[in-house]
Amino acid sequence: MSTPTAKQYAEALTPSAETKAAYMGEFTMPFPMVEDDGEEYVRMVNVPWTTIKKIMAEIKTRAETHPQGDPVEEAAKVLLECWDAAMAGERPDAHINLAIGAAFGAAAYDHADNHDQGAAAMIRALLLGITDPFHSDLDYLRANAITAISKP
Q: What is the pTM of this model?
């Protein structure tokens, strides 16, 4: 299952006929009762729609005011999900883009004079190779990257 989008979350947390139909009856709470003879029992009652709407509003407010995750970490998670899906055969299109980016990243690292320059060059070439593999900034790496991709 893929990660829901912000739009999907917003729709799920916005009161509507669709969300009312989806959520009504899904949430219950215990309600203590007493029989005429004094025997106690618990009856499960549906949470009222007005309460569900208040909960939805509170979740929405918290999401909007709570600090967001690190965008770099979030982007890395998406890339990892794509890679895992590609390796599982679910996203064969993602495999080539990520492999090209990795090949450019490796070529950039090898081309650098030292580790610090290599790490910076590798990250930039990896990301540029994924997003725009024909970018002119990658021209100096093309021979090495093509060799890396074509190796068995």
A: 0.50
